[in-house]
């Protein structure tokens, strides 16, 4: 009896820690989405599909062209950042004055485009990088290096964005425009340029997430659907545009999924997370950290 | 007005006569699919036209299809009872999610994302309960045939059933359009506070329209299941189906009664043309074209094809309006 309890505890602890590690990457995605929402007031429904394209980019660079991983990653981040800027320039910019719902639905169209583009161009087979990172054993618990690395890189990426936003002129302009869209252009900030830069940063964060996720998951055209919805829920739960709320919510969700997966199937973890989200919307409709009016 | 009535009756007779004049099974199959999906898109537009953009309708459709099929296979409950039960299930779920949403003023982006979570839940539950639902491999209602099982082999019967349901959808649309509820909903979509101040019960009106829309969508799902005799989580539930509804409704036109029907005809015919001309090489191309069209339509023709055409006819051409 005692032994069973011990094993259970270790699995439990392992799941908790794996949840934290998963939370890092989710927090990175949530940060990108929150940044774009906070500054441009747009939700990119296709955000996870940008990650998918980035994962394919990594696959082709590393597996097909033989570029080493550390050299391919910056290229992919740049590629997805350009993709983000292009998405803003081609789809969002013409719709800036349209009702917000139209922008959201237009990015829904982009979701279709990217998914089917991947289907047509890359086929529907599952592909992976073929890099097997060792597993770290700590006592009886096992953690993959891929997850530890992702967690660390995600944290570094987030700190980088934070420093950029607080320490540079452009970063300050971005934060200012998030606070007041009407006044900032009068203060001499070129809103169009700031929007483009923000979109590129949002894209770059998706690219970074792609480099990290491709270490752990196979890539296929519909891979975005497996973590896209959860990213939106994290952002909404944290309060759209609220960076710290999104950060906390990412870990809450990651724990629910990880622990739900421990006690039952992974799908039930997701079901639990979705249900938790709907309940939370009623308790704190404006996000975890919002004060109730 | 009388001319109009005559026109409608003639159109109706022509529609009913189609399968008896031209009984090519493939063409009838396409028509049945168009009618069933038109009904689903119409039910989405009943909400969507008032700015209540839901991505949860994939969930309602999935419930309609799966509850009906599960009751039939596991409990021997005829679809005649199963379909109303599945509709009731979808209705209850719609109320449970929508009431707090409307009560706490969850609108815009937030409403879209909450409903997105709803269709995500339904998809995951169907996949997770794979012992009963077959999971992502799909599910087939037990074959029995006959009226009690609501399974027919000939396309003509199905065509007439789908036609009747589709017409019912249009009648409901018209009733809403003519009723007080559309005035109330228009006021709400302009400005909730002002509408409430003018004596509109915002929560109740929104709930009514959501309930109608969810019930109709579940019916569409159940019909699709009975007609196709095969459902899988990806074809009747989830976010992709929700987006597909949004897409077709927007392409056809959300603000006119026949808009979603035009959207359904365009999307289904487009998919078929691509499938026939490119064969299996077409996998993915139809969605690629959909996606590009959806973006272009939202940017350049937000009222949809039919809506824009009607605008052109009824008023002189002017700068296209963003709505």
UniProtKB/TrEMBL annotation, chain A:
It is found in: Cell membrane. It comes from the Bacteria. The keyword Lipid biosynthesis does not apply. The chain crosses the membrane at residues 15-37, 44-62, 68-92, 104-124, 144-165, 194-215, 270-290. Keywords: Amino-acid transport, Cell membrane, Membrane, Transmembrane, Transmembrane helix, Transport. Pfam families: BPD_transp_2. It is a multi-pass membrane protein. The keyword NAD does not apply. InterPro entries: ABC_transp_permease, BCAA_transport_permease. Belongs to the binding-protein-dependent transport system permease family. LivHM subfamily. This is Branched-chain amino acid ABC transporter permease. The lineage of its organism: Bacteria, Pseudomonadati, Pseudomonadota, Alphaproteobacteria, Hyphomicrobiales.
């Amino acid at each position: 009896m005692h032994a069973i309890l011990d094993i259970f505890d270790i699995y439990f602890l392992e799941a908790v820690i794996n949840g934290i590690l998963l939370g890092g990457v989710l927090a990175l995605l949530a940060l990108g989405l929150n940044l774009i929402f906070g500054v441009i007031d747009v939700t990119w429904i296709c955000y996870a599909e940008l990650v998918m394209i980035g994962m394919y980019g990594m696959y082709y660079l590393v597996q097909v062209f033989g570029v080493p991983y550390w050299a391919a990653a910056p290229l992919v981040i740049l590629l997805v950042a350009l993709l983000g800027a292009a998405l803003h320039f081609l789809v969002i910019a013409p719709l800036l004055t349209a009702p917000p719902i139209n922008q959201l639905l237009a990015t829904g169209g982009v979701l279709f485009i990217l998914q089917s583009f991947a289907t047509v161009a890359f086929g529907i087979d599952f592909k992976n990088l073929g890099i097997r990172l060792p597993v770290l054993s700590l006592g009886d618990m096992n953690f993959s290096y891929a997850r530890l690395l992702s967690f660390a890189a995600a944290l570094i990426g987030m700190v980088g964005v934070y420093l950029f936003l607080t320490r540079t002129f452009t970063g300050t302009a971005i934060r200012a425009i998030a606070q007041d869209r009407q006044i900032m252009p009068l203060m001499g900030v070129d809103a169009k340029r700031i929007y483009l830069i923000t979109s590129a940063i949002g894209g770059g964060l998706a690219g970074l997430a792609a480099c990290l996720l491709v270490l752990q998951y196979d890539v296929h055209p519909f891979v975005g659907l497996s973590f896209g919805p959860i990213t939106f829920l994290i952002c909404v739960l944290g309060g759209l545009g609220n960076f710290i709320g999104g950060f906390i919510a990412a870990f809450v969700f990651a724990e629910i999924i990880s622990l739900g997966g421990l006690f039952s199937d992974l799908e039930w973890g997701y079901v639990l997370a979705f249900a938790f989200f709907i309940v939370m919307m009623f308790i704190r409709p404006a996000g975890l950290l919002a004060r109730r009016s | 007005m009388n001319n109009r009535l005559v026109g409608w009756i003639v159109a109706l007779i022509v529609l009913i006569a189609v399968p008896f004049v031209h009984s090519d099974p493939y063409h009838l199959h396409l028509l049945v699919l168009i009618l069933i999906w038109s009904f689903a898109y119409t039910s989405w537009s009943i909400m969507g036209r008032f700015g209540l953009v839901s991505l949860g309708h994939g969930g309602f459709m999935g419930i309609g299809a799966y509850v009906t099929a599960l009751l039939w296979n596991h409990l021997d409950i005829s679809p005649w009872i199963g379909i109303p039960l599945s509709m009731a299930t979808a209705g209850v779920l719609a109320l449970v999610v929508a009431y707090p949403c409307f009560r706490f003023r969850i609108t815009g982006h937030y409403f879209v994302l909450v409903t997105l979570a709803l269709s995500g839940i339904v998809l995951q539950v169907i996949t997770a309960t794979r012992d009963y639902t077959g999971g992502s491999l799909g599910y087939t209602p037990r074959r029995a045939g006959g009226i009690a099982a609501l399974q027919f082999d000939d396309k003509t019967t199905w065509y007439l059933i789908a036609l009747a349901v589709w017409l019912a959808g249009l009648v409901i649309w018209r009733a809403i359009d003519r009723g007080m509820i559309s005035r109330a909903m228009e006021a709400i979509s302009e400005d909730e506070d002002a509408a409430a101040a003018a004596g509109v019960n915002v929560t109740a009106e929104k709930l009514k329209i959501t309930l109608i829309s969810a019930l109709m969508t579940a019916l569409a799902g159940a019909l699709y299941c009975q007609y196709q005799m095969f459902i899988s989580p990806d074809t009747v539930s989830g976010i992709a189906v929700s987006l597909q509804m949004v897409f077709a409704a927007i392409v056809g036109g959300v603000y006119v009664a026949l808009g979603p029907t035009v959207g359904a005809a365009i999307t289904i015919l487009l998919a078929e043309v691509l499938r026939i001309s490119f064969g299996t090489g077409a996998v993915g191309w139809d969605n690629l074209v959909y996606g590009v069209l959806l973006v272009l339509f939202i940017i350049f023709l937000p009222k949809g094809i039919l809506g824009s055409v009607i605008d052109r006819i009824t008023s002189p051409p002017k700068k296209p309006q963003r709505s």
